[in-house]
Design brief:
The protein has 126 residues and is an all-alpha fold.
Amino acid sequence: MNTKTKKEPGSRSPNEIDRHVGIRLRKLRVDQRLTLQDLAGQIGVSHQQLQKYETGTNRLSVGMLPGVADALGVDLMEFFEDSASAPPEKKSKADQLRRECEFVLRRTKSEEALKRMLNVLKALTH
């Protein structure tokens, strides 16, 4: 039996899915130009722990995943995107810009700042 892919029921060691989620986590963090310290502070773990999630040394719990997705401003399913799908460079520049805008909007907590940002966007579209 190959212990890398098959696990005993209840095993807590990382499996292929955990490693894939870690790889996606690192890619999403790097794409948004966040340091380990930046993201770790947002999700309430040390940068060393976050690095262990990214490398697949430790498992990222299902309970933490929504908070990590929120901190990155992405949909939860981004962590499970098939590695065979089109690489990000195949996505349009407009799609990349929309994602960056969405990320900034999600991180903006002030209602007043959001109103000002909306007014700027509306003015730019006319």
